[in-house]
Design brief:
By secondary structure, the protein is of the alpha/beta class. 39% of the residues lie in helices and 27% in strands. The protein has 4 helices and 5 strands. A 5-stranded mixed beta sheet has the order 1-3-2-4-5, sandwiched between helices. α2 (31-46) links the parallel β2 and β3. The radius of gyration is 12 Å and the shape is globular.
Length: 101
């Protein structure tokens, strides 16, 4: 299951992670975010080598701003504390997995 990431847990869970991290920036009211959510959960369940986190942009506006998230859903891949890939909008599972590799 994807972990809920907050400002308080961000450094430990994301920046200091020894695995690649897939972040899903979303909001509860966002229709496309709800469409993408099952795909994100599938990736979390099927790929233990990837840390998957969800960030609610309404609850964590500072994190959204720091990654320049203007539209949601937005996906950001972080490896060793650095952003290596990002996308906006609903993406197919295969495309998301390619971003992580």
């Amino acid at each position: 299951m994807a972990a809920k990431i907050t400002s308080a847990t961000f450094e430990t869970e994301v920046l200091k992670s020894d695995k690649p991290v897939l972040l899903d920036f979303y909001a509860d009211w966002c229709g496309p975010c709800r469409m993408l959510s099952p795909v994100i959960e599938e990736i979390a369940a099927e790929h233990p080598e990837i840390k998957v986190g969800k960030i609610n942009v309404d609850e964590e506006p500072d994190l959204a701003q720091s990654y320049q998230v203007m539209s949601i859903p937005a996906l950001v891949v972080i490896k060793e504390g650095k952003t290596v890939a990002s996308s906006v909008g609903v993406q197919p599972k295969g495309t998301i997995l390619k971003m992580i590799q």
